[in-house]
Amino acid sequence: MKVAYLIEGEIDTENPSSVLCKILRKTKIWTSKGHTVLVYSLRTGNYLDVCSLEVVTLGKKYTLNSTAISKLFIINYNAYKFFQHISNQSFDLMYSRLITYTPHIELLFRKIPTILEINSYEKKEYSGAAYSTYTRIYNSVLGDRLKNTASAYVFVTNELAALYRRDLKNIPRYCVIANGYDFGRVPSLNESVSCRVSLAFIVSPGLPWHGLDHLIELAKSLPEYDFHVVGETGSNTLNVFYHGYKTGSELDEILSNSHIGIASLALERAGLSEACPLKSREYFNYGLPCFGSYVDTDFFDASSNFNPVYKQIANIEDYDKSKKEIKQFVESWIKQSPYKNDVRRNAMLLLDDRVKERRRLELFSEICQRR
After folding, report:
1. For residues 267 and 208, what is the distance between their CA atoms, to the nearest angstrom?
2. Measured between alpha carbons, how far is 54 from 45 in angstroms, rounded to an integer?
3. Phi-psi region for residue 171, left (φ > 0), alpha (ψ -120 to 50) or beta?
4. pLDDT, position 189
5. How far apart are CA 204 and CA 229, in angstroms?
């Protein structure tokens, strides 16, 4: 099977974004099964051959400083170049993240069976201040055209599936495949960490749904625990420590020396209640049980598990009640130390990329057979 994968993010194999890392992980699994995959970026105007890792430039690149009009011009130009290139290849299938509409992309969706992956609720996302008024208007007018020509959908949560099924006229085939993780890289699982309990909280600067404000309030009521915030800067307190942006060995050291992970604490600010964040999967890879304020797609039945690796806090804004829930969850794991190998092994059985991609490739085969 030959697959064209369309994205709007940058293709930079030397300094890949978290999204590109995720794409490379799963497409490498596809190529290991004998499939050919080319990843096309509307942002940088180039494509990546996943098997050879060769990058070929066909179009132009826009930057964060480009205006909305210039971005749209470049996206349309790149879409035209991609249409020419893809039309001259024998592709069996296209796989696409939700991208900006252009006429040539619509033509490709109609020409080749296309599976559309949905990672967020577009109508809520584009209503935020991060997007210009022009972008919001353009998306509201033309955004549904691509969605209505897709052959099938992959949603990362059940909640997103329900929202889009409500909004769109026709979703011919869909499945829910939450985010997985590459458990092939085994980090150092330090079971002999300090006696004082450490909790790691990975965030992205300025994103309100991560709920850093909630963490600060919870830390005040849990002075016996240390909270290590990665990805954000700030003034340290007696038990909250800011590490800024960390990767590689520096991040490895923080997670290896932690007991528990903290996932998003305010997802409702993004208009959602269900998620499968990559950072929670990263915690599991380090053997860290974690908690958050949302329903995790892969752990709907966690409440029936005596000691789940993921704990949903019922009402994070009720700090007194949340403090008790968190303390109970933390202590239930700490008292049975060592536990990190067990957490990692149990999470891997459910969340490993190879498990997730087996289901995705089954959908590929089904859509191609319908052609």
Report:
1. 8
2. 14
3. beta
4. 84
5. 10
- Structural Rg of the chain based on CA atoms: 22
Mean pLDDT by 10 residues, the chain (371 residues): 95 85 93 97 96 95 86 95 96 93 95 94 59 64 83 95 87 92 86 84 91 96 97 95 92 94 94 92 96 92 66 94 96 91 93 95 93 68
Tokens of 296: 């995790």
Contact 312, 293 (CB under 8 A): yes
With beta carbons less than 8 A apart as the criterion, state whether 230 and 252 touch: no
Both structure tokens of 201 = 């909280």
pTM: predicted TM-score of the whole model, two decimal places: 0.86
By three-state DSSP, how is residue 74 classified?
helix
Residue spans of alpha helices (H) in the chain: 18-32, 68-87, 103-111, 122-125, 133-147, 158-167, 212-221, 248-256, 278-285, 319-334, 340-351, 353-370
| 162-190 as b/e: b if 16+ CB within 10 A | ebbeeeeeebeebebbbbbbbbeeeeebb
Q: Tokens for 319, please give them.
A: 């700090």
Cα–Cα distance for residue pair 107/293, rounded to 1 Å? 41
Nearest-angstrom CA–CA distance, 201 and 261: 6
Contact 335, 289 (CB under 8 A): no
DSSP state of 208: G
CB 253 within 8 A of CB 245: no
Residues 10 and 20: their CA atoms lie apart, in Å, by: 8
Q: Which residue in the block uniquely carries the two structure tokens 């909790």?
A: 199
C-alpha pair distances (Å), 79 with each of 89, 104, 105, 333: 15, 6, 6, 51
Give the tokens for residue 345: 């092994």
Nearest to 38 by CA among 90, 110, 111, 104: 90
